[in-house]
Amino acid sequence: MLAVTDQGKIDTEYKSGPGPVLLAVTLRPGGNDLNLAKIILLLFGGLCMIVGTIFWLIGAGPVLPFMGIEVVLLYAAYRFGQNRTRLCEKIALTERALLIDWTDGRGHR
Q1: Are 53 and 67 in contact (CB under 8 A)?
Q2: How many CA atoms does the CB half-sphere of 2 hold within 13 Å?
Q3: How confident is the model at residue 37 (pLDDT cuts 50, 70, 90)?
Q4: Which residues contact 96 (CB under 8 A, 6 or more apart)?
Q5: Residues with Cβ < 8 Å from 41, sequence gap 6 or more?
Q6: What pTM value is reported for the model?
Q7: What's the pLDDT band for 57 if we cut at 50, 70, 90?
Q8: Does 59 score more than 60 pLDDT?
């Protein structure tokens, strides 16, 4: 059989295996540009702070906490998406065996 190292890599040089590896593939979700997401989060947070402050200055004080809640919810969605981009599935096919190694966003198998 094939051996999987601690780093999740498929060892194709395993001598007593069922033959040579015919196909070794690593599948991941579509890549998100996380730096762009951070910039968007900061811009949105700044915009919410400006709009909330304007509403607070004209006497609508309860608007400011809701603007903060929007930023917190957007950050939570960002973190959820960031964890999803770490999903990984490794597939190796030999003449006699199919090995599938799945890792979740937290690194658990």
Answers
A1: no
A2: 25
A3: confident
A4: 18, 19
A5: 71, 74, 75, 78
A6: 0.52
A7: very high
A8: yes
Q: Which two tokens stand for residue 32?
A: 């998100």
Distance between CA atoms of 101 and 44, rounded to whole angstroms? 38
* 8 A C-beta contact, residue 102 and residue 20: no
d(CA 39, CA 41): 5
Amino acid letter, 84: R
Reading the block at residue 87, the tokens are: 């999903």
6, pLDDT greater than 60: no
For 72, the 3-state DSSP assignment is helix
What per-residue string of b and e applies to 46-72 under the rule 16 or more CB within 10 Å gives b? eebeeebeebeeeeeeebbeebeebbe
Q: What tokens appear for 56 in the block?
A: 């607070």
Q: Please check the confidence at residue 7 and state whether its pLDDT lies above 60.
A: no
